[in-house]
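Standup notes, structure subgroup. Blocker cleared on the cobalamin input:
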Amino acid sequence: MTDLVEITRSLVAMDIERTEELTRAAIAAGIPASEILEKGLITGMQTVGEQFEAGEIFLPELLMSGEAMKAALNHLKPLLTAQPGGRRFAGKAAIGTVQGDIHDIGKNIIIMMLEGNGWEVTDLGVDVSPEDFCTAVRENNFQVLGLSALLTMTMPNQTRTIEALKAAGLRDRVKVAIGGAVCTQAFADQIGADCYAADAADAARKFAELVS
Ligand code: B12
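Run returned:
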């Protein structure tokens, strides 16, 4: 039986191969993908973040753990995006990480979870400028636009993106959702976002509410 604590440990130890191997074993053992993700991998990333903050590890280590997480996610993706009971269309969304920010693991998980809930999601990538968000909204009929920010320094670019949508006359065309470790509901209210979600399950629920 695969121990999810072992997955957490291998991620913290930056062991890409072992993290992948243990993730595959956990899937084979029938552990739900969401549990492997939350209890194994995300717990590991939190620990890595704390170690980085405490000055115990540095950027290269952060990068390696990020790669281990991404490798494991490749195995979970088919399970997270699978739609039990057949395909049902929930809506169209686009998600990007705001300008100046290259963190994309959380964004990618949100996309997988939404796809698993019937959303057609366009991945706008990382370091997306307010102008590029506007172009994407102008050229498509997305119902929800997601803005991810992981740095205190890049949160103002969530605000700028909403301001740019207003200035371009596009704000009424799309609901805006924000997220990322540094964001809060209070910040979402302050900048006039339509929704804040703390994690992927929360996002799936709240995106559905936005279009209901
Ligand atoms: C991995 C990582 C990196 C990797 C990123 C790899 C990648 N491809 O993403 C690398 C090494 C590149 C990196 C770089 C940096 N990082 Co970094 N990083 C992290 C770390 C350890 C984990 C982030 C992560 O993937 N978490 C796991 C995912 C699943 O969680 P999540 O991203 O929060 O996403 C979830 C929710 O927030 C939400 N969500 C996320 N996005 C969205 C969007 C929407 C629309 C919604 C609804 C929800 C939602 O749902 C997700 C799923 O549950 C965090 C620590 C932490 N605790 O967050 C630091 C952290 C974010 N990094 C930090 C820093 C300082 C940096 C650097 C500035 C370091 C440096 N000196 O250069 C650079 C900045 C680079 C840049 N310009 O962006 C700080 C930020 C501090 C702050 N408050 O500003 C943190 C918090 C570490 C710390 N404790 O000091 N980092």
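Discussed briefly. The first strand starts at residue 91 and ends at 98.
Next: hand off to the docking folks.
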